């Protein structure tokens, strides 16, 4: 029953495993070199409002939006701010910052959130 | 009435540390439960959680989240999505619920450990909510599949799987027990909330939600993306703990905890999330490949955050980067081949069109894994299905508890990484798996994986049927090809 097990025990103990993936590994690694920060929101009114608010609250910065159907990834480099007042304007209804959590599934960078604004940021730049 | 802003009173009210009079600090916070690592109380009191919530806020927000997820379920119940869903997608959900639902429930115990034993008041406060979150996740992910149990018994494994000795359940349980059930409060904050929840849960709860929305399963997409909004809050408990460890000379400890948890999570996801994203999800529903989601969530987002918090890349980073193109293909081949031993029906996912997609996403696929599938396809074509099922047992890793795999075919590099410890020979699927054992052999040395148990005589009779019985898999539960081999018609036509 275990005759086939032998074929698994090939390879010498200290050799480094290699494969065709070695060249691709370098390409994979390139993805780490980024300074993107920002919220990942479940698709819906709040996500749409956050896209508009991100443009208004981060003047002069290029805001990128990736629409993954179930969620939107909103990002820019280094720091991204969303203000409560701007969200209110963009939603056209009263808005408390804590409501963001209902759709905030994830975020890039670190988060700092209070009653007036949410801030996504990185301390270091690569 | 004017209310104070939360930030004007929160810090004062949540700092509930007082000086104990009737017991010593060590009795109140035993080291084996608290894990303060010699760092004094006043340092832990500087813990500043970045994502602050009060109890009234928590209750109103959670109510809104549940109202959303449950109303989507109710509204779509009549759409009969499941009646028409691709069998591969059904398998995706069955694998997900079985591996995840009870682990979520168990996670509330881990949160409770921080809630009671962490020396950081902010950690205790956030963990109170985390504990309630995980109860919500356990309940929702049992309630949703429960309504499908009348369809077949495999749905029942949402509740059953982690109570059995099915090999995947052993692997999941060993991982979760290690990360969250057997660590002190600070260990839980680093290994569970930081390394696992900030990183890998995004793969299963957002990456998969993107696929779910593509295939039209809005109930599942809504549920799991809603669950992830809890995670994104309570996962923030690890960051401030990391900061305190680093500031107090414990960076090496912190780095090791992150590196062990990261590698172990990767291996579990290579067998759970990899196959469902690249093989089970119908082709038209694949938003990105597993590797592309890994690059988005784990490399670009999570690992970048690790660097920002002052830790380094794991020492095995190059091996991890390389394995992104390899491991989950081997896991999928193994799961399909040993399909009676899982509680869902694995989708082969290798029609000519799907192979084109695999070749595009993973150049060289046809020359490696494709060669194994060619043999399987030939055997099915030649009326020898018995040759496409398990005859022997795989070698299983003593860390990940899943098979040892590598690249087959023209890229052959399969290798067993061995270690002799106190007279027992252990087998590992990679150098990092072996390293996880070596840094803490006392923790792991007694455990028996499925193959160890088989060889020790726990599985009787010692054959496939005995194995299935040991794993708790009865007819109607054990897996077979998701599409009942109908995909083979594309090859039969090509041949004729």
Explain how this protein is built:
- The complex is a heterodimer of chains A (126) and B (496).
- Residues 1-15 of chain A have low confidence and may be disordered.
- Chain A contains three helices and seven strands; from the N terminus they run H-E-H-E-E-E-H-E-E-E.
- In chain A, strand 2 and strand 3 form a beta hairpin.
- Chain A has a four-stranded antiparallel β-sheet, covered by helices on one side. A three-stranded antiparallel β-sheet of chain A has the order 4-7-6.
- In chain A, helix 2 crosses helix 3.
- The radius of gyration of chain A is 22 Å and the shape is globular.
- With 126 residues, chain A is of the alpha+beta class.
- Chain B has 24 helices and two strands.
- Helix content of chain B is 61%, strand content 2%.
- Chain B has one domain: Ribonucleotide Reductase, subunit A.
- Chain B has a two-stranded antiparallel sheet.
- In chain B, helix 7 packs antiparallel against helix 14, helix 11 packs antiparallel against helix 12 (218-234) and helix 11 runs antiparallel to helix 13.
- In chain B, 53% of the residues are buried.
- Chain B has helices at residues 6-14, 25-28, 31-34, 41-44, 55-76, 81-84, 87-117, 121-146, 157-160, 167-181, 185-215, 218-234, 238-247, 251-280, 290-308, 317-323, 327-337, 352-361, 369-381, 431-438, 441-444, 450-455, 464-470, 489-495, and strands at residues 417-421, 424-428.
- Chain B is mainly alpha-helical.
Chart the SSEs and their pairings.
The complex is a heterodimer of chains A (126) and B (496).
Chain A (H helix, E strand, L loop, with lengths): L20 H10 L5 E7 L2 H13 L6 E4 L3 E7 L1 E5 H8 L12 E5 L1 E4 L3 E5 L5
Antiparallel strand pairs in A: 1-3, 1-5, 2-3, 4-7, 6-7
Helix pairs in contact in A: 2-3
Chain B lengths: L5 H9 L10 H4 L2 H4 L6 H4 L10 H22 L4 H4 L2 H31 L3 H26 L10 H4 L6 H15 L3 H31 L2 H17 L3 H10 L3 H30 L9 H19 L8 H7 L3 H11 L14 H10 L7 H13 L35 E5 L2 E5 L2 H8 L2 H4 L5 H6 L8 H7 L18 H7 L1
Antiparallel strand pairs in B: 1-2
Helix pairs in contact in B: 5-12, 7-8, 7-10, 7-11, 7-14, 8-12, 10-11, 10-14, 11-12, 11-13, 11-14, 11-15, 13-14, 14-17
């Amino acid at each position: 029953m275990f005759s086939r097990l032998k074929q698994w025990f090939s390879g010498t103990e200290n050799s480094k495993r290699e494969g065709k993936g070695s060249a691709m590994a370098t390409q994979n690694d390139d993805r780490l070199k980024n300074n993107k920060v920002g919220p990942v929101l479940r698709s819906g009114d709040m996500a749409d409002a956050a896209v508009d608010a991100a443009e208004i609250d981060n003047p002069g910065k290029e805001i990128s939006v990736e629409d993954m159907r179930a969620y939107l990834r909103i990002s820019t480099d280094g720091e991204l701010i969303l203000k409560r007042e701007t969200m209110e304007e963009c939603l056209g209804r009263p808005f408390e910052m804590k409501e963001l959590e209902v759709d905030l599934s994830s975020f890039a960078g670190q988060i700092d959130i209070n009653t007036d604004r949410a801030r996504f940021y990185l301390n270091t730049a690569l | 009435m004017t209310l104070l802003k939360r930030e004007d009173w929160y810090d004062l009210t949540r700092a509930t540390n007082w000086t104990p009079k009737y017991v010593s600090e060590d009795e109140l916070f035993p080291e084996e439960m608290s894990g303060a690592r010699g760092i004094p109380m006043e340092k832990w009191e500087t813990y500043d959680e970045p994502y602050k919530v009060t109890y009234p806020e928590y209750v109103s927000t959670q109510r809104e989240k549940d109202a959303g997820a449950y109303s989507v379920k109710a509204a779509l119940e009549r759409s009969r999505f499941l009646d028409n869903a691709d069998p591969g997608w059904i398998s995706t959900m069955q694998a997900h619920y079985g591996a995840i639902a009870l682990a979520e429930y168990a996670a509330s115990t881990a949160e409770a450990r921080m809630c009671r034993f962490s020396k950081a008041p902010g950690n205790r406060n956030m963990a109170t909510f985390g504990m309630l979150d995980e109860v919500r996740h356990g309940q929702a992910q049992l309630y949703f599949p429960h309504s499908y149990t009348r369809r077949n018994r495999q749905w029942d494994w949402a509740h059953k799987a982690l109570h059995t000795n099915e090999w995947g359940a052993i692997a999941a349980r060993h991982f979760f027990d290690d990360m969250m059930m057997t660590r002190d409060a600070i260990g839980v904050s680093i290994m569970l909330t930081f390394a696992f929840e900030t990183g890998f849960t995004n793969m299963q709860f957002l990456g998969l939600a993107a696929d779910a929305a593509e295939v039209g399963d809005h109930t599942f997409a809504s549920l799991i993306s809603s669950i992830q909004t809890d995670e994104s809050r309570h996962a923030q408990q690890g960051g401030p703990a990391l900061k305190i460890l680093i500031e107090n000379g414990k960076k090496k400890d912190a780095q090791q905890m992150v590196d062990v948890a990261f590698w172990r999570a990767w291996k579990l996801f290579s067998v759970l999330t990899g196959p469902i994203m690249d093989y089970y999800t119908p082709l038209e529903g694949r938003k990105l490949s597993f590797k592309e989601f890994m690059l988005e969530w784990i490399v670009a987002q999570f690992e970048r955050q690790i660097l920002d918090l002052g830790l380094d890349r794991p020492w095995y980073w190059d091996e991890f980067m390389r394995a992104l193109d390899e491991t989950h293909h081997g896991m999928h081949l193994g799961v399909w081949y040993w399909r009676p031993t899982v509680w869902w029906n694995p989708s082969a996912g290798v029609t000519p069109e799907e192979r084109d997609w695999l070749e595009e996403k993973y150049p060289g696929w046809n020359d490696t894994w494709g060669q194994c599938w060619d043999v399987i396809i030939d055997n099915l074509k030649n009326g020898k299905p018995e040759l496409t099922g398990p005859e022997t047992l795989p070698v299983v890793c003593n860390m990940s508890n899943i098979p040892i795999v590598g690249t087959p075919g023209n890229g052959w590099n399969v290798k067993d990484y061995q270690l002799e410890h106190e007279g027992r020979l252990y087998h590992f699927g990679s150098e990092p798996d072996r390293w996880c054992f070596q840094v803490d052999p006392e923790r792991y040395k007694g455990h028996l994986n499925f193959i160890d148990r088989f060889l020790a005589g726990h599985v009787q009779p010692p054959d496939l049927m005995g194995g299935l019985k040991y794993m708790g898999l009865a007819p109607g539960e054990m897996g077979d090809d998701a599409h009942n081999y109908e995909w083979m018609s594309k090859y039969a036509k090509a041949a004729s």
